[in-house]
Design a protein that fits this description.
Layout lengths: L1 H8 L11 H33 L5 E6 L2 E6 L8 E4 L8 E7 L1 E4 L1 H4 L5 E3 L4 E2 L4 E2 L4 E7 L5 H13 L4 H30 L4 H14 L3 H20 L8 H5 L5 E5 H5 L5 E7 L5 H12 L7 H10 L8 E6 L3 E6 L2 E6 L1 H6 L7 H9 L3 E7 L2 E9 L6 H10 L3 E5 L4 H11 L3 E3 L4 H13 L4 E4 L1
Parallel strand pairs: 10-17, 10-19, 17-18
Antiparallel strand pairs: 1-2, 1-3, 3-9, 4-7, 4-9, 5-6, 5-8, 11-16, 12-13, 13-14, 14-15, 15-16
Helix pairs in contact: 2-4, 2-7, 5-6, 5-7, 10-11
Amino acid sequence: MFIGMVQIFRGNHAYVDNLYFESASIVIFFMKLGRFLDRTSKDKTKEAIQKLVKITPDYAVVKLDGVEKQVTLDAIKTGDLVISKPGEKIAVDGEITYGNAHLDVSFLTGESKMASKTIGDKVIAGSLNYDGYLEYKAQKIGKDSTVSQIVKLVLEATSTKAPIAKLADKVSGYFVPTVMVLAFVSFLAFWILGFDFSIAIETFVTILVIACPCSLGLATPLAIVISEGLCASHGILIKKSEILEQALKTTTVVFDKTGTLTYGTLKIAKVINYSDLEEKDLLQLVGSLEAKSTHPISKAFLDYLEQHQLEKLEVEDFESITGYGIVGKVNGQDFMLGSSKIVSKYGIENSHLSDEGLLASEGNSIIYVIKNKEIIALIGVNDIVRDNAKGVISKLSKHNIEAIMLTGDNEQTAKKIAGEIGISKVLANVLPANKATVVKGLKDDGKFVMMCR
């Protein structure tokens, strides 16, 4: 191209027909595009890592010689006594030495229900203390913490290559020098045979451009980068690039229930209303009372008020009765909310046991709504099925991929949810520690298994 420009400036306009600036531009454009996509994918990975790091708080309160002192996480040492109050996040991995509380560990487990923790139980950095005072001994800090291990896995994923990418690199290592030799030999052949020097150079450049191994050096890694980027945008972190290639062989997909097939957060699943109130008004009333409570189940009602843009009603004489429920006055009327224990405690006649059994059979946590010592409603709160779960299972079935539900919940609840979305095989009452063993058993049976949780 350069020689053609020189010839044109010298007055030889015949070279105009063979001057192609766009060819050079397109080659440079695709190379730049590949690097841009690669950089974008790495930026997404960095964002994911930053979000993981932000899970833990910047500061924590430690107890030294009976005195509370606020320190940075770097100042915490193994064995230090750390304090966590309601609304605060656990600073480091440790073991509870005093107190009890409900912790939100959904960022790690996907479980919607709060985990009840007491003396002797382990706590994980980043967990949210919902309603209790805790003192715990620091055990795993810095690079040994659970969050740090997750970050390490993400970093390992960005530094690995898929087998097909490694093959492309290996072939490119032989392909490029071979093309260079062929191009140089062609240049010498044209020149020795008496062709014009510019034609010999043009032949040399043409071979280099046309034989450019873009499909090996650019297209293959580019396809992997885009795939990883799409996965990241949907919240899927790839541990190793080779997993993308192996996914094609999948014959069985094992789904965890909570947080995977379900939303992972408690929602109002069913309302049995015995009163003259509209359901919306009833839930506004209940939500107003629950807003005063610190119990994990109250969030389901607060979400309902927010979703339907309902104002909280004024509540008077509110009282939380540990282990039973809550009481309070709204518009001069006495209300009680709680489990069946509160019905027994106050000697209230209960003629709705069959409805309670129905809600319980569907895996719901049940709340009695009592007005002036009369039951006016039963509300079932549960982790409900995701809107797109049935469609996903249907698509897997069309591709002859078996779907299995693996859960720690009771078999009756698990089978009900599985039936709703089209899963025929359910493995219930499986402890978290045993789930890996179940998956290994499926692999030993010759199945290529993907686990979703």
